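A quick aside before the break. I want you to see a complete sequence-to-structure record at least once, exactly as it would be stored in a machine-readable document. Don't worry about memorizing anything.
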Amino acid sequence: MGRPRPPRTSRPPQPPRTPRSPRASRPPGTISPSRRSVLGAGLTAGLASAGLAACGSGSGSGDRESIVVAIVSNPQMQDAISLIDHFTEQHPDIDVRFVSLPENEARAKITASVASGGGEFDVVMISNYETPLWAPNGWLTDLEPYIAKTDGYQPDDFVPTIKDALTVDGSMYSVPFYGESAFLVYREDLFEEAGLEMPAHPSWDDLRSFASTLHDPEGGMSGIALRGLAGWGENLAPMSTVINTFGGCWFDMEWAPSLDSPEVHDAVSMYVDTLRSYGQPGAATSGFGECLTQFSQGNAAMWFDASSMVSGVENPSSSTVVGKTGYALGPTLETPYAGWLYAWSLAIPETSQKKDAAWEFIAWMTHPDYFQLVGEELGWEALPPGSRLSTYEIPEYAELSENYAEPTLDSMENATQENSMTQEVPYDGLQNVVVPEFQDLGTRVGQQFSAAIAGQKSVDEALEQSQGFAESVARTYGWEG
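That is the input. The structure line, written in C-alpha coordinates, reads:
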Protein backbone atom coordinates (compact mmCIF):
# COMPACT_ATOMS: atom_id res chain seq x y z
CA MET A 1 0.00 0.00 0.00
CA GLY A 2 1.31 3.47 -0.88
CA ARG A 3 2.08 5.92 1.88
CA PRO A 4 -0.88 8.25 2.39
CA ARG A 5 -0.05 11.92 2.64
CA PRO A 6 -1.80 15.23 2.04
CA PRO A 7 -1.22 16.77 -1.37
CA ARG A 8 1.66 19.22 -1.40
CA THR A 9 1.42 22.67 -2.83
CA SER A 10 2.74 22.49 -6.37
CA ARG A 11 5.71 24.67 -7.16
CA PRO A 12 8.41 24.75 -9.84
CA PRO A 13 11.41 22.48 -9.32
CA GLN A 14 13.88 24.14 -7.00
CA PRO A 15 17.61 24.35 -7.74
CA PRO A 16 19.92 22.48 -5.37
CA ARG A 17 20.38 24.36 -2.13
CA THR A 18 23.73 25.93 -1.56
CA PRO A 19 25.30 24.40 1.54
CA ARG A 20 25.13 26.71 4.48
CA SER A 21 28.37 28.41 5.28
CA PRO A 22 29.63 27.82 8.82
CA ARG A 23 29.20 30.71 11.23
CA ALA A 24 32.89 30.99 11.85
CA SER A 25 32.66 34.67 12.74
CA ARG A 26 31.17 33.98 16.17
CA PRO A 27 31.95 31.30 18.73
CA PRO A 28 29.32 28.58 19.13
CA GLY A 29 26.54 29.56 21.49
CA THR A 30 27.20 33.31 21.40
CA ILE A 31 24.88 35.96 20.05
CA SER A 32 25.96 37.93 17.00
CA PRO A 33 26.16 41.72 17.48
CA SER A 34 23.34 42.33 15.00
CA ARG A 35 21.05 40.08 17.00
CA ARG A 36 22.13 41.38 20.36
CA SER A 37 21.23 44.94 19.42
CA VAL A 38 17.56 44.05 19.14
CA LEU A 39 17.09 41.27 21.67
CA GLY A 40 16.16 43.55 24.52
CA ALA A 41 13.54 45.50 22.58
CA GLY A 42 10.12 45.36 24.11
CA LEU A 43 10.95 42.76 26.76
CA THR A 44 9.65 44.74 29.70
CA ALA A 45 6.38 45.73 28.03
CA GLY A 46 3.36 44.53 29.94
CA LEU A 47 5.32 43.15 32.88
CA ALA A 48 4.07 45.63 35.44
CA SER A 49 0.82 43.72 35.77
CA ALA A 50 2.55 40.45 36.69
CA GLY A 51 2.61 40.57 40.48
CA LEU A 52 5.05 38.62 42.62
CA ALA A 53 3.87 36.00 45.07
CA ALA A 54 5.04 36.39 48.63
CA CYS A 55 8.00 34.11 49.21
CA GLY A 56 8.32 34.45 52.99
CA SER A 57 12.10 34.57 52.82
CA GLY A 58 12.86 36.60 55.90
CA SER A 59 16.47 37.51 56.59
CA GLY A 60 17.68 34.33 58.27
CA SER A 61 18.54 33.92 61.91
CA GLY A 62 21.79 34.60 63.71
CA ASP A 63 24.66 34.38 61.25
CA ARG A 64 22.60 32.50 58.67
CA GLU A 65 22.22 34.16 55.27
CA SER A 66 18.87 33.62 53.60
CA ILE A 67 18.56 33.24 49.81
CA VAL A 68 15.34 33.01 47.80
CA VAL A 69 15.27 30.49 44.92
CA ALA A 70 12.52 30.76 42.27
CA ILE A 71 11.96 27.45 40.51
CA VAL A 72 9.55 25.69 38.20
CA SER A 73 7.43 23.12 39.99
CA ASN A 74 8.40 19.86 38.29
CA PRO A 75 9.49 16.45 39.61
CA GLN A 76 13.23 17.10 39.28
CA MET A 77 12.97 20.33 41.27
CA GLN A 78 10.80 18.69 43.89
CA ASP A 79 13.56 16.11 44.24
CA ALA A 80 16.04 18.91 44.89
CA ILE A 81 13.78 20.35 47.59
CA SER A 82 13.55 16.94 49.23
CA LEU A 83 17.36 16.73 49.35
CA ILE A 84 17.99 20.25 50.66
CA ASP A 85 19.05 18.97 54.09
CA HIS A 86 22.21 17.65 52.45
CA PHE A 87 23.00 21.17 51.29
CA THR A 88 22.34 22.77 54.68
CA GLU A 89 24.55 20.19 56.39
CA GLN A 90 27.40 21.36 54.17
CA HIS A 91 26.41 25.05 54.38
CA PRO A 92 24.94 25.67 57.84
CA ASP A 93 25.23 29.42 57.31
CA ILE A 94 22.87 29.49 54.29
CA ASP A 95 19.10 29.32 54.62
CA VAL A 96 17.38 28.39 51.33
CA ARG A 97 13.79 29.54 50.75
CA PHE A 98 12.02 28.19 47.65
CA VAL A 99 9.32 29.81 45.55
CA SER A 100 7.99 26.88 43.51
CA LEU A 101 5.40 27.65 40.83
CA PRO A 102 3.86 26.04 37.72
CA GLU A 103 5.82 26.75 34.54
CA ASN A 104 3.69 29.52 33.02
CA GLU A 105 3.31 31.32 36.35
CA ALA A 106 6.98 30.91 37.19
CA ARG A 107 8.02 32.37 33.83
CA ALA A 108 5.81 35.42 34.33
CA LYS A 109 6.96 36.14 37.88
CA ILE A 110 10.64 35.51 37.25
CA THR A 111 10.59 37.64 34.11
CA ALA A 112 8.76 40.47 35.88
CA SER A 113 11.21 40.45 38.77
CA VAL A 114 14.42 40.25 36.73
CA ALA A 115 13.34 42.70 34.03
CA SER A 116 12.24 45.32 36.56
CA GLY A 117 15.27 44.86 38.82
CA GLY A 118 12.97 43.93 41.68
CA GLY A 119 15.60 41.91 43.50
CA GLU A 120 13.12 39.46 45.05
CA PHE A 121 15.13 36.40 43.98
CA ASP A 122 18.74 35.37 44.43
CA VAL A 123 18.52 32.33 42.16
CA VAL A 124 16.14 31.95 39.21
CA MET A 125 15.29 28.99 37.03
CA ILE A 126 15.36 30.04 33.38
CA SER A 127 16.23 28.41 30.06
CA ASN A 128 18.26 28.80 26.91
CA TYR A 129 15.46 31.09 25.68
CA GLU A 130 15.88 33.72 28.42
CA THR A 131 19.65 33.45 28.96
CA PRO A 132 20.83 34.95 25.63
CA LEU A 133 18.11 37.62 25.85
CA TRP A 134 18.81 38.74 29.39
CA ALA A 135 22.61 38.54 29.65
CA PRO A 136 23.32 41.33 27.11
CA ASN A 137 20.94 43.56 29.07
CA GLY A 138 23.05 43.20 32.21
CA TRP A 139 20.28 41.36 34.06
CA LEU A 140 22.29 38.22 34.85
CA THR A 141 25.54 37.62 36.72
CA ASP A 142 28.53 36.28 34.80
CA LEU A 143 29.11 32.86 36.37
CA GLU A 144 32.57 32.19 34.95
CA PRO A 145 34.48 33.51 38.00
CA TYR A 146 32.37 31.30 40.29
CA ILE A 147 32.77 28.25 38.06
CA ALA A 148 36.53 28.70 37.96
CA LYS A 149 36.91 28.58 41.74
CA THR A 150 34.60 25.62 42.39
CA ASP A 151 36.46 22.35 42.95
CA GLY A 152 35.41 19.47 40.73
CA TYR A 153 32.71 21.45 38.92
CA GLN A 154 33.86 20.31 35.45
CA PRO A 155 32.09 22.77 33.12
CA ASP A 156 33.48 20.91 30.10
CA ASP A 157 31.34 17.96 31.19
CA PHE A 158 28.16 19.81 30.21
CA VAL A 159 26.57 18.60 26.96
CA PRO A 160 28.35 20.90 24.45
CA THR A 161 25.27 22.23 22.66
CA ILE A 162 23.61 22.97 26.01
CA LYS A 163 26.69 24.76 27.30
CA ASP A 164 26.94 26.80 24.10
CA ALA A 165 23.27 27.78 24.31
CA LEU A 166 23.84 29.23 27.79
CA THR A 167 27.01 31.09 26.81
CA VAL A 168 27.14 34.74 25.76
CA ASP A 169 30.41 36.33 24.67
CA GLY A 170 32.38 33.40 26.05
CA SER A 171 30.81 33.36 29.52
CA MET A 172 28.11 31.13 30.97
CA TYR A 173 25.30 33.19 32.49
CA SER A 174 23.27 30.18 33.60
CA VAL A 175 24.21 26.55 34.19
CA PRO A 176 22.03 23.58 33.24
CA PHE A 177 20.11 21.45 35.71
CA TYR A 178 18.68 19.22 33.01
CA GLY A 179 18.41 19.38 29.24
CA GLU A 180 16.52 17.82 26.39
CA SER A 181 16.21 17.50 22.67
CA ALA A 182 13.49 15.58 20.84
CA PHE A 183 13.22 12.05 19.53
CA LEU A 184 10.76 9.31 18.74
CA VAL A 185 9.57 6.51 21.02
CA TYR A 186 7.68 3.60 19.51
CA ARG A 187 6.20 0.25 20.50
CA GLU A 188 8.71 -2.39 19.44
CA ASP A 189 6.22 -5.17 20.13
CA LEU A 190 3.58 -3.68 17.81
CA PHE A 191 6.14 -3.08 15.09
CA GLU A 192 7.31 -6.68 15.31
CA GLU A 193 3.76 -8.02 15.17
CA ALA A 194 3.05 -5.90 12.07
CA GLY A 195 6.33 -6.79 10.38
CA LEU A 196 7.54 -3.18 10.48
CA GLU A 197 11.08 -1.94 11.11
CA MET A 198 11.85 1.52 12.44
CA PRO A 199 14.90 3.18 10.81
CA ALA A 200 17.43 4.85 13.10
CA HIS A 201 16.78 8.07 11.12
CA PRO A 202 13.10 7.92 10.10
CA SER A 203 11.42 10.39 7.76
CA TRP A 204 7.95 11.86 8.13
CA ASP A 205 6.90 9.69 5.19
CA ASP A 206 8.03 6.65 7.21
CA LEU A 207 6.02 7.74 10.24
CA ARG A 208 2.85 8.39 8.25
CA SER A 209 3.13 4.95 6.68
CA PHE A 210 3.66 3.28 10.07
CA ALA A 211 0.85 5.29 11.66
CA SER A 212 -1.54 4.29 8.89
CA THR A 213 -0.75 0.61 9.44
CA LEU A 214 -0.97 0.68 13.25
CA HIS A 215 -3.89 3.09 13.71
CA ASP A 216 -6.79 1.19 15.27
CA PRO A 217 -9.20 3.60 16.97
CA GLU A 218 -11.79 0.90 17.59
CA GLY A 219 -9.16 -1.07 19.47
CA GLY A 220 -8.07 2.01 21.42
CA MET A 221 -4.79 2.42 19.55
CA SER A 222 -3.69 5.66 17.86
CA GLY A 223 -1.06 5.42 15.16
CA ILE A 224 0.87 8.32 16.68
CA ALA A 225 0.63 10.88 19.48
CA LEU A 226 1.66 14.48 18.83
CA ARG A 227 1.08 17.74 20.67
CA GLY A 228 -1.82 19.87 19.49
CA LEU A 229 -2.38 22.06 22.55
CA ALA A 230 -1.86 25.74 21.70
CA GLY A 231 1.24 27.40 23.11
CA TRP A 232 4.74 28.45 22.14
CA GLY A 233 6.04 25.82 24.57
CA GLU A 234 3.42 23.24 23.57
CA ASN A 235 2.40 22.52 19.97
CA LEU A 236 4.97 24.90 18.49
CA ALA A 237 7.84 22.89 19.96
CA PRO A 238 7.35 19.88 17.64
CA MET A 239 5.67 21.88 14.86
CA SER A 240 8.59 24.30 14.54
CA THR A 241 10.99 21.40 14.02
CA VAL A 242 8.69 20.09 11.27
CA ILE A 243 8.71 23.51 9.62
CA ASN A 244 12.51 23.52 9.83
CA THR A 245 13.03 20.09 8.29
CA PHE A 246 10.54 20.82 5.50
CA GLY A 247 12.73 23.76 4.49
CA GLY A 248 10.69 26.53 6.08
CA CYS A 249 11.44 29.18 8.68
CA TRP A 250 9.73 31.97 10.62
CA PHE A 251 11.69 34.89 9.08
CA ASP A 252 14.24 35.10 6.28
CA MET A 253 17.52 36.99 6.53
CA GLU A 254 15.74 40.27 5.76
CA TRP A 255 13.26 39.60 8.57
CA ALA A 256 10.51 39.04 6.02
CA PRO A 257 7.87 36.76 7.62
CA SER A 258 7.85 33.36 5.91
CA LEU A 259 4.83 31.60 7.38
CA ASP A 260 3.05 31.89 4.03
CA SER A 261 5.79 30.01 2.13
CA PRO A 262 5.06 26.72 0.33
CA GLU A 263 7.47 24.91 2.67
CA VAL A 264 5.68 26.05 5.81
CA HIS A 265 2.32 25.23 4.22
CA ASP A 266 3.53 21.70 3.44
CA ALA A 267 4.87 21.22 6.95
CA VAL A 268 1.78 22.43 8.78
CA SER A 269 -0.56 20.59 6.40
CA MET A 270 1.30 17.33 6.98
CA TYR A 271 1.31 17.73 10.77
CA VAL A 272 -2.38 18.64 10.90
CA ASP A 273 -3.39 15.84 8.56
CA THR A 274 -1.30 13.29 10.48
CA LEU A 275 -3.01 14.19 13.75
CA ARG A 276 -6.47 14.30 12.22
CA SER A 277 -5.96 10.97 10.42
CA TYR A 278 -3.90 8.92 12.89
CA GLY A 279 -3.58 10.95 16.09
CA GLN A 280 -4.91 10.53 19.61
CA PRO A 281 -8.45 11.55 20.62
CA GLY A 282 -8.68 15.21 21.64
CA ALA A 283 -5.45 15.99 19.81
CA ALA A 284 -6.11 19.75 19.65
CA THR A 285 -5.99 19.96 23.46
CA SER A 286 -3.18 17.45 24.02
CA GLY A 287 0.05 18.78 25.49
CA PHE A 288 3.14 16.93 26.66
CA GLY A 289 1.37 15.46 29.70
CA GLU A 290 -1.60 14.17 27.74
CA CYS A 291 0.65 12.58 25.10
CA LEU A 292 2.72 10.95 27.83
CA THR A 293 -0.42 9.44 29.31
CA GLN A 294 -1.58 8.18 25.92
CA PHE A 295 1.71 6.46 25.15
CA SER A 296 2.62 5.18 28.62
CA GLN A 297 -0.85 3.66 29.05
CA GLY A 298 -0.52 1.71 25.80
CA ASN A 299 -2.86 3.80 23.65
CA ALA A 300 -0.42 5.07 21.00
CA ALA A 301 2.03 3.24 18.75
CA MET A 302 4.49 6.16 18.41
CA TRP A 303 5.19 9.52 20.02
CA PHE A 304 7.52 12.29 18.83
CA ASP A 305 8.38 14.71 21.65
CA ALA A 306 10.97 15.82 24.21
CA SER A 307 13.69 13.33 25.11
CA SER A 308 12.86 13.95 28.78
CA MET A 309 9.83 11.72 28.17
CA VAL A 310 11.91 8.73 29.24
CA SER A 311 11.43 9.45 32.94
CA GLY A 312 7.71 8.81 32.44
CA VAL A 313 7.75 6.21 29.69
CA GLU A 314 10.28 4.03 31.50
CA ASN A 315 8.84 4.44 35.00
CA PRO A 316 7.54 1.00 36.04
CA SER A 317 5.29 2.47 38.72
CA SER A 318 3.24 4.49 36.23
CA SER A 319 3.88 3.13 32.72
CA THR A 320 2.42 -0.02 31.17
CA VAL A 321 4.88 -0.11 28.25
CA VAL A 322 8.20 -0.55 30.08
CA GLY A 323 10.25 -3.15 28.21
CA LYS A 324 8.19 -2.71 25.02
CA THR A 325 9.73 0.47 23.66
CA GLY A 326 12.33 1.49 21.14
CA TYR A 327 13.78 4.93 20.34
CA ALA A 328 14.82 6.68 17.14
CA LEU A 329 15.90 10.15 16.11
CA GLY A 330 13.31 12.76 15.28
CA PRO A 331 11.68 12.42 11.84
CA THR A 332 13.13 14.50 9.00
CA LEU A 333 12.46 15.49 5.41
CA GLU A 334 15.03 17.91 3.94
CA THR A 335 17.57 17.94 6.79
CA PRO A 336 19.78 15.30 8.44
CA TYR A 337 18.32 16.02 11.90
CA ALA A 338 15.12 17.48 13.31
CA GLY A 339 15.02 18.11 17.01
CA TRP A 340 15.15 20.95 19.45
CA LEU A 341 17.33 22.00 22.34
CA TYR A 342 16.08 23.10 25.74
CA ALA A 343 17.62 23.37 29.17
CA TRP A 344 16.16 24.33 32.54
CA SER A 345 19.03 26.21 34.09
CA LEU A 346 19.92 28.24 37.17
CA ALA A 347 21.12 31.84 37.13
CA ILE A 348 21.81 34.69 39.55
CA PRO A 349 20.04 38.00 38.85
CA GLU A 350 22.48 40.90 38.84
CA THR A 351 20.35 42.56 41.54
CA SER A 352 21.03 39.82 44.10
CA GLN A 353 22.95 41.03 47.15
CA LYS A 354 23.89 37.48 48.12
CA LYS A 355 25.65 36.19 45.04
CA ASP A 356 28.26 34.08 46.84
CA ALA A 357 25.59 32.21 48.77
CA ALA A 358 23.44 31.93 45.65
CA TRP A 359 26.32 30.34 43.76
CA GLU A 360 26.97 27.87 46.56
CA PHE A 361 23.41 26.60 46.11
CA ILE A 362 23.64 26.52 42.30
CA ALA A 363 26.97 24.71 42.42
CA TRP A 364 25.55 22.10 44.79
CA MET A 365 22.54 21.43 42.56
CA THR A 366 24.46 21.25 39.26
CA HIS A 367 27.68 19.59 40.48
CA PRO A 368 28.55 16.03 39.35
CA ASP A 369 28.29 14.96 42.99
CA TYR A 370 24.58 15.88 43.01
CA PHE A 371 23.81 13.19 40.45
CA GLN A 372 25.37 10.56 42.68
CA LEU A 373 23.31 11.87 45.60
CA VAL A 374 20.05 11.65 43.62
CA GLY A 375 20.80 8.12 42.46
CA GLU A 376 21.71 6.88 45.92
CA GLU A 377 18.88 8.61 47.74
CA LEU A 378 15.99 8.62 45.23
CA GLY A 379 16.88 6.01 42.60
CA TRP A 380 18.89 6.16 39.40
CA GLU A 381 15.83 6.69 37.22
CA ALA A 382 15.39 10.08 38.95
CA LEU A 383 18.67 11.55 37.65
CA PRO A 384 18.20 14.88 35.83
CA PRO A 385 18.91 13.97 32.18
CA GLY A 386 20.69 15.76 29.39
CA SER A 387 22.95 18.21 31.21
CA ARG A 388 26.20 16.33 31.88
CA LEU A 389 27.90 13.74 29.70
CA SER A 390 29.20 11.92 32.78
CA THR A 391 25.63 11.12 33.83
CA TYR A 392 25.55 8.50 31.11
CA GLU A 393 28.81 6.98 32.36
CA ILE A 394 27.49 6.21 35.85
CA PRO A 395 27.24 2.39 35.75
CA GLU A 396 23.78 2.20 37.30
CA TYR A 397 22.36 4.86 35.00
CA ALA A 398 24.19 3.52 31.94
CA GLU A 399 22.45 0.19 32.42
CA LEU A 400 19.09 1.84 32.98
CA SER A 401 19.38 4.13 29.93
CA GLU A 402 20.91 1.63 27.53
CA ASN A 403 17.89 1.83 25.24
CA TYR A 404 17.73 5.61 24.94
CA ALA A 405 21.08 7.16 25.92
CA GLU A 406 22.52 7.07 22.40
CA PRO A 407 19.56 8.72 20.61
CA THR A 408 19.31 11.26 23.44
CA LEU A 409 22.93 12.38 23.13
CA ASP A 410 22.93 12.11 19.33
CA SER A 411 19.87 14.32 19.11
CA MET A 412 21.28 16.88 21.53
CA GLU A 413 24.67 16.95 19.84
CA ASN A 414 23.10 17.69 16.48
CA ALA A 415 20.42 20.14 17.63
CA THR A 416 21.90 23.02 15.65
CA GLN A 417 20.52 25.24 12.92
CA GLU A 418 23.19 23.96 10.55
CA ASN A 419 21.92 20.38 10.95
CA SER A 420 18.20 21.06 11.38
CA MET A 421 17.41 23.90 8.95
CA THR A 422 17.99 24.42 5.24
CA GLN A 423 18.72 28.15 5.18
CA GLU A 424 20.28 30.97 7.14
CA VAL A 425 17.97 32.89 9.45
CA PRO A 426 18.55 36.09 11.48
CA TYR A 427 17.50 34.55 14.80
CA ASP A 428 18.65 31.83 17.17
CA GLY A 429 16.39 28.96 18.15
CA LEU A 430 14.94 25.75 16.76
CA GLN A 431 11.64 25.22 18.57
CA ASN A 432 11.31 28.95 19.13
CA VAL A 433 12.61 32.27 17.86
CA VAL A 434 14.89 33.84 20.43
CA VAL A 435 13.41 37.32 20.39
CA PRO A 436 11.35 38.83 23.22
CA GLU A 437 8.20 39.07 21.12
CA PHE A 438 8.06 35.33 20.49
CA GLN A 439 6.22 34.54 23.70
CA ASP A 440 3.22 36.45 22.38
CA LEU A 441 3.74 35.61 18.70
CA GLY A 442 4.18 31.91 19.44
CA THR A 443 1.07 31.83 21.59
CA ARG A 444 -1.02 33.43 18.84
CA VAL A 445 0.33 31.19 16.08
CA GLY A 446 -0.03 28.11 18.27
CA GLN A 447 -3.69 28.96 18.71
CA GLN A 448 -4.15 29.13 14.95
CA PHE A 449 -2.48 25.75 14.42
CA SER A 450 -4.52 24.19 17.22
CA ALA A 451 -7.71 25.47 15.60
CA ALA A 452 -6.67 23.81 12.33
CA ILE A 453 -6.05 20.52 14.16
CA ALA A 454 -9.51 20.79 15.72
CA GLY A 455 -11.04 21.38 12.28
CA GLN A 456 -12.25 24.84 13.22
CA LYS A 457 -10.39 26.48 10.34
CA SER A 458 -8.34 25.45 7.33
CA VAL A 459 -4.56 25.40 7.25
CA ASP A 460 -4.67 28.22 4.71
CA GLU A 461 -6.74 30.35 7.07
CA ALA A 462 -4.47 29.55 10.03
CA LEU A 463 -1.34 30.47 8.09
CA GLU A 464 -2.82 33.68 6.68
CA GLN A 465 -3.64 34.85 10.19
CA SER A 466 -0.26 33.71 11.52
CA GLN A 467 1.57 35.58 8.76
CA GLY A 468 -0.20 38.76 9.84
CA PHE A 469 0.94 38.27 13.43
CA ALA A 470 4.53 37.71 12.25
CA GLU A 471 4.47 40.86 10.12
CA SER A 472 3.89 42.98 13.22
CA VAL A 473 7.00 41.50 14.85
CA ALA A 474 9.07 41.79 11.67
CA ARG A 475 8.59 45.55 11.54
CA THR A 476 10.29 45.78 14.92
CA TYR A 477 13.43 44.34 13.31
CA GLY A 478 13.54 46.59 10.26
CA TRP A 479 11.31 44.76 7.77
CA GLU A 480 9.52 47.36 5.69
CA GLY A 481 6.99 45.13 3.93
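Two observations worth writing down. The radius of gyration is 22 Å. The chain has two domains: 52-179+342-402, 182-339+413-476. We'll return to this after the break.
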